[in-house]
């Protein structure tokens, strides 16, 4: 019995071992089949197994490799594709032509910019009035000279003036010499070759030189208006124009009666016009009557000068009202309507700051913004004052203990010098200042205001508070101006950036220049 049990157990062990062997053999066979499948499976371009169809092969999508060149050429010649390409080409050019037509229509319908009228060069700049003897001493002799003027041309360039008047023959030449040489630089100022160097450098900096002349005083022996004086002046004009002088400012006092003066200017204008041909720049002939206001008025209305100078702005003072300013400015506008005029306040008979203390900067604003060519007397741009009736050397540094260029440049963000620089630039940089129509804007409550408007260019508005109290204005509601404007310059010297025109505050005796963009 025991033997039968042992035999039974052994048989079971044998059966289990056989089953295990069969299972291992089956697994080996399965692994082999899997390897065969992997070996025979197609792959795509990315290395992934391709899809198989029902027959075990790769799907048509996996087998497609695109049309050959021959097949593409064959298809492209089919009528359908020919018509398709032609239609797309026609649509492209129709679209292009439509866009071109739209652009042309916009240009044609848009408001056209006004053509800028021709202007003589002297109407597009401020003129700096130099006293050669006092402006700059180059050799330490205690007197200014031609080389000294040359050394300060950069200063004039920074002042944004493009023309200067200077003396080469002193006004008192006839009283200090028996004979005046009209065709040479006075020995006190330098030599002719030094003048040539000055003019070469000035041309490089785009600054024109105008010669100051005093024929009546040079011919103080009673020959004014005679044939000798006339011929000598003609020779002098020709000589200096050949040297490159851009024009002449002629003192007319003492030359004779109004009609005689006018006849002289007609002769001189005939001479300057021969040097003002197409290939040569116009030469300007300036008439300066200084204290003779009647003669100045006559020359404006009837004279043959290119640029008669008037000193009307000297009539304004701290006691002037907005009506006084309006009437004076209106008179100047009428004078400048058909003829270019020069405007001056300071001069050899006194600085602006001396004539109108407390109002000098405000008057400087008017001088540089009214229609006309402003003349800046040397030193007025820094607020220089008269001293015992003597001609004051230009104070370049603080050694003199008075207002000077160095101190003004140190405080350049709030100086009279900066104000003049900014406003002088308007004459040649802003269309409104060069060509603009003059519109009175406000004349009430102690405030006088006007605008300079030219086509679609930025506008300028100049406001002047002549009252003794602060004024608050709403220019947006009452005068249809934009909400803000940028400050170009203020006689108070402290304004910067933009201002709110709906509540604009003007200080007493303040003159303010603002700029704002055109809005259609």
Automatic annotation (TrEMBL):
* GO molecular function term, any single one: L-alanine transmembrane transporter activity
List the Pfam families: Alpha-amylase (PF00128), SLC3A2_N (PF16028)
User: Keywords in UniProt for this one?
Assistant: Membrane, Transmembrane, Transmembrane helix
Gene Ontology BP terms: carbohydrate metabolic process; L-alanine import across plasma membrane; L-leucine import across plasma membrane; phenylalanine transport
**Origin superkingdom:** Eukaryota
Which InterPro entries did the record assign? GH (IPR017853), GH13_cat_dom (IPR006047), Glyco_hydro_b (IPR013780), SLC3A2 (IPR042280), SLC3A2_N (IPR031984)
Span-the-membrane segments of this chain are 86-108
Any keyword Transmembrane helix? yes
For bias type Basic and acidic residues, the affected ranges are: 1-15
Give the Acidic residues compositional bias ranges: 16-33
Query: Locate the Glycosyl hydrolase family 13 catalytic domain: which residues?
Result: 129-427
* GO (cellular component) term, any one: apical plasma membrane
**Region described as Disordered:** 1-35
Q: Protein name, please? A: 4F2 cell-surface antigen heavy chain
Give the source species.
Answer: Petromyzon marinus
The gene designation is SLC3A2
């Amino acid at each position: 019995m025991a033997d039968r049990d042992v035999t039974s157990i052994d048989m079971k062990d044998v059966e289990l071992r056989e089953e295990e062997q069969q299972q291992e053999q089956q697994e080996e066979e399965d692994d082999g089949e899997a390897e065969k499948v992997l070996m025979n499976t197609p792959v795509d371009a990315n290395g992934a197994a391709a899809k198989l169809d029902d027959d075990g092969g790769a799907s048509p999508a996996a087998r497609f490799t695109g049309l050959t060149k021959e097949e593409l050429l064959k298809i492209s010649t089919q009528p359908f594709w020919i018509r398709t390409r032609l239609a797309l080409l026609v649509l492209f050019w129709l679209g292009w032509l439509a866009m071109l037509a739209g652009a042309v229509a916009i240009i044609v319908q848009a408001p056209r910019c006004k053509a800028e009228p021709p202007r003589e060069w002297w109407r597009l700049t401020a003129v700096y009035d130099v006293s050669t003897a006092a402006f700059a001493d180059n050799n330490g002799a205690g007197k200014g000279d031609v080389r000294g003027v040359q050394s300060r041309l950069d200063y004039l360039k920074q002042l944004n003036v493009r023309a200067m008047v200077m003396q080469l023959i002193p006004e008192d030449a006839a009283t200090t010499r028996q004979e005046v040489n009209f065709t040479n630089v006075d020995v006190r100022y330098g030599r002719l070759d030094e003048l040539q160097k000055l003019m070469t450098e000035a041309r490089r900096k785009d600054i024109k030189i105008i010669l100051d002349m005093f024929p009546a005083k040079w011919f103080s022996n009673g020959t004014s208006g005679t044939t000798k004086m006339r011929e000598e002046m003609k020779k002098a004009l020709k000589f200096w124009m050949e040297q490159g002088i851009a024009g002449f400012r002629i003192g007319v006092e003492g030359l004779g009666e109004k009609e005689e003066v006018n006849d002289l200017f007609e002769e001189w204008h005939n001479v300057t016009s021969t040097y003002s041909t197409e290939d040569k720049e116009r030469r300007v002939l300036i008439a300066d009557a200084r204290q003779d206001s009647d003669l100045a008025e006559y020359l404006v209305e009837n004279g043959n000068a290119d640029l008669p100078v008037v000193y009307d702005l000297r009539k304004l003072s701290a006691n002037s009202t907005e009506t006084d300013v309006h009437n004076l400015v209106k008179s100047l506008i009428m004078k400048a309507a058909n003829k270019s005029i020069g405007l001056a306040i300071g001069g050899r008979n006194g600085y602006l700051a001396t004539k109108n203390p407390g109002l000098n900067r405000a008057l400087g604003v008017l001088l540089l913004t009214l229609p006309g060519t402003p003349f800046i007397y040397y030193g007025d741009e820094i607020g220089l004052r008269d001293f015992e009736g003597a001609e004051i050397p230009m104070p370049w540094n603080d050694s003199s203990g008075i207002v000077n260029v160095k101190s003004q440049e140190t405080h350049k963000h709030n100086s009279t010098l900066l104000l003049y620089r900014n406003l002088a630039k308007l004459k040649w940089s802003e269309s409104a200042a060069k060509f603009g129509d003059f519109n009175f804007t406000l004349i009430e409550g102690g405030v006088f205001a006007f605008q300079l408007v030219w086509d679609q260019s930025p506008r300028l508005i100049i406001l002047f508070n002549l009252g003794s109290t602060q004024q608050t204005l709403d220019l947006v509601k009452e005068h249809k101006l934009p909400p803000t404007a940028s400050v170009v310059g203020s006689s108070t010297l402290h304004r910067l950036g933009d201002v709110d025109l709906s509540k604009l505050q003007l200080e007493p005796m303040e003159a303010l220049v603002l700029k704002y963009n055109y809005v259609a």
